[in-house]
Amino acid sequence: MSSTPLVSILLPCRNATSTVDEALASLAAQTFNNFEVLAVDDGSVDGTLTLLDEWTRRDARIRTFQSPQHGIVSALNEAASHSRGELLARMDADDIASPTRLECQVEFLDTHRDIVACGTGISYFPRRLIRDGARKYESWINGVISPAAIERDLFVECPIPHPTLVVRATAFQQLGGYLEVGWPEDYDLILRLWEAGYRFGKVPEVLLRWRERPDRLSRTDQRYADDAFRRCKVHFIRHRIAGRPVVICGAGPVGKAFARALLANEHRVAAFIELDPRKMGQTIHGASVVPWSDIRRYREAYALAAVGSSEARWEIREHLIAAGFREPEDCCAVA
Q1: Could you say which DSSP state residue 296 is in?
Q2: 197: alpha, beta or left, given left = phi > 0 and alpha = psi -120 to 50?
Q3: Do the Cβ atoms of 122 and 138 come closer than 8 Å?
Q4: In sequence order, what are the residues at sequence separation of 6 or more whose Cβ sits closer than 8 angstroms to the Cβ of residue 133?
């Protein structure tokens, strides 16, 4: 192994005695071995730190740091501050990496020099705990692969699963690392990278098993609630809207929620576009609900396909493109 690792793996840990052994074992078994693991114990009150210290004695690539409980953003930045690699990789203390994960991602970034960060496909486990929403998200993630598809669906959900992220350290450092901003730190980083003009890719293979558990931060912390995601999306989508009025295609719960978030950020909602005749003539948040036949009246506006169904999003996209809207210059999908 080189004295200077190519990949630095950021591994925040808190009360992870039941899972961290399996996570670290999956990293120790990687076919690519020029890496270091920067494990930060974030104020654990169980035996996590003892387990990490044992791994450090056993494997020189693993380095352990102790920190008071300041949360995941602080732990990630603490790990990054000790990194030596050209590439920063993410891993959670309860997930399992496939043996070829790092090899595939390093090769991908070496081959695609125009890509600043990449992810991989994922599989949730244990399957008995996976609900329909998570299965749909898993299927969506594993289907959004190319740089063009990732940019196209950037505001549907975060297209790069955080535990699979590998990012070039120079870009990460340029943006100041992770920020505590009241919404998901991983999505915020991806959108700041996009805002800075960087591109993303994905290794199509499923190379990470993503553990589902009821006490995951994404299930319990308000920073990962639907409203926080919407605020994050609206904050960054302003660059696409560029001061234009907005038409929202879909007058259901998703469209209404985005209208509220847009209005809170002083974006003007010009109209809701709907296919359902029962909604015609309604006024929602001060904007009229009008039929699709009126879409060309709003050709100077920015259009959001704001529906929960992926099938409906594609149908709206087809309508918008037929009406002369370009994606993402004049329209995009949100959810």
Answers
A1: G
A2: left
A3: yes
A4: none
- Determine contact, residues 198/147, Cβ cutoff 8 Å: no
**Euclidean distance between CA atoms 32 and 21, whole angstroms:** 19
Angle of CA points 8, 206, 197, to nearest 5°: 55
User: Which residues lie across from 249 on neighbouring strands?
Assistant: 273, 305
CA distance 292 to 320: 9
From the number of C-beta atoms within 10 Å of its C-beta (0-12, 13-18, 19+), residue 293 rates as exposed
pTM (2 decimals)? 0.94
DSSP result, 196-247 = TT-EEEEEEEEEEEEE--TT-HHHH-GGGSHHHHHHHHHHHHHHHHTT--EE
Looking up tokens 């494997």 gives 59
- Please state the φ and ψ torsions of residue 56, each to the nearest 5 degrees: -60, -40
Instruction: Give the strand pairing for 199-211 and 96-97.
Output: antiparallel
**Do residues 318 and 291 lie in contact, with contact meaning Cβ atoms separated by under 8 Å?**
no
How many CB atoms lie under 10 A from the CB of residue 123?
15
Placement of tokens 């959810």 in the chain: 335
What is the per-residue pLDDT across 154-201, written as a single tens digit (0 to 9) for each?
999 999 999 999 999 999 999 999 999 999 999 999 999 999 999 999
Please report the sign of the dihedral spanned by the C-alpha atoms of residue 14, residue 20, residue 26, residue 27: positive
CB contact burial 197-234 (16+ within 10 A = b; e otherwise): ebbbbbbeebbbbbbbeeeeeeeeeebbeeebbbbbbb
Cβ atoms within 10 Å, residue 4 = 10
- Average pLDDT across the chain, whole number: 95
Q: Are 330 and 240 in contact (CB under 8 A)?
A: no
Q: Which stretch of DSSP H or E encloses residue 331?
A: strand 331-334
DSSP H/E element including 263: helix 253-264
